[in-house]
Amino acid sequence: MPASGLHFLWRDPRVASQFRTGVSLHSHTMHSEENMAFLPRYAHRIPGVSQAMRKHEAAFRSYYGKELDYSRSWWTPPLPAPDAEALERRQIENLLDLPALVSLTDHDSITAGLNLRLTNPLSAAPISTEWTVPLPGSFIHLGIHNLPPDDAASWMAHFRAWTAAPCPNRLAELLAALHALPHVLIVFNHPLWDEGLAGREIHRRMVHDFLNRCGAWVHALELNGLRPWEENRDVAALAAARSLPLISGGDRHGREPNANVNLTRAATFAEFVAELRQDRLSHVLFLPQYNGSLKLRCLETMADTLRDYPEYPGRVQWSDRIYFRQDDGQIATLTSLWRGAGPGIVRNFVALLRVLESRRVRATLRQALAGRREYAL
């Protein structure tokens, strides 16, 4: 069985003193294209929002003579790579008093890691990505960490080619080839999150089918900092059944740093990978924010993505960070398409979320949404 430790900082404030380094895994930057194809499936479940969306979809259909294709639009998190890395690094250094290793994993992009190395030739930042892997009926996400710098672009080309023309046998070959690189880490991110809304049982069958075919080349299952404990507990059971280690993954998109990290006695990312792959050691630490309300944390992340950032020219407004691919293939921002402030319902929604910038409002909501939680496997 893998030797994994599960720790909670609010229970054991001194646990980090036993380790050498803190590792932040799975967080996103401005280079992460977050596809909005999911939006109507979720939004149409919300009273009021559903009616407003149907109204705008009907107006689009009437004007253009076709349905609004959400899959051609995407949003990007606000932080550039240096700021995202600094945010994660500060939390580990200040809260845990440890040096930090940070692996940024944007969706299907390695630009963040490449940029960190370009701006700082001495940077040891791993080149990593979160690969979206379509499977029959839905999709999964794999965290691919620490690609070899000289071959990282070539690997991304292989990933994109497979995604464009999925082939089950070829997927096994790709993962086996990655596994053959001793410093690469392959993580099954939030494995039990039915992100594609396929249905709980369908999604779990897909997960088991994938692990039956490719599990030999998966190094760990992720306990996700933005998923509920009940789901993470099921992931732990799945990991035990498959004799796979557990690993942290905060999945940060906004300004709240990752809610869990790994603790290690390794000094470099390659040593951390070896500790997990060869020694089967993984110590996951949940941080205080995970003990708060998940609903409030998600709202705060949404507010982070919708606030203005004057320090980022060209990406100041939230609508500057939403993109749409037009019929001619050209990419336009939502700001340029609206040529104005946008629909009233959108402006009102943004204004409502910005109320969360008030510390008093956040404190009130935190108290109202607080509840007793039991963290046990």
Explained architecture:
The chain is of the alpha/beta class and 377 residues long. It folds into 2 domains: 3-33 and 77-291, Metal-dependent hydrolases (TIM Barrel), CATH 3.20.20; 292-377, no CATH class. The protein has helices at residues 39-43, 49-64, 81-96, 111-119, 152-164, 168-179, 200-214, 229-242, 269-277, 294-306, 334-338, 344-354, 359-369; strands at 3-8, 21-25, 34-35, 73-75, 100-103, 127-135, 138-147, 185-189, 220-224, 246-249, 260-264, 281-286, 322-325, 331-333. The chain has a 5-stranded mixed sheet with strand order 1-12-11-2-5. A 5-stranded mixed sheet has the order 6-7-8-9-10. Strands 3-4-13-14 form a 4-stranded antiparallel sheet. The protein is globular. The protein starts with a strand and ends in an 8-residue tail after the last helix.
Topology:
Layout: E1 3-8, E2 21-25, E3 34-35, H1 39-43, H2 49-64, E4 73-75, H3 81-96, E5 100-103, H4 111-119, E6 127-135, E7 138-147, H5 152-164, H6 168-179, E8 185-189, H7 200-214, E9 220-224, H8 229-242, E10 246-249, E11 260-264, H9 269-277, E12 281-286, H10 294-306, E13 322-325, E14 331-333, H11 334-338, H12 344-354, H13 359-369
Parallel strand pairs: 1-12, 2-5, 8-9, 9-10
Antiparallel strand pairs: 2-11, 3-4, 4-13, 6-7, 7-8, 11-12, 13-14
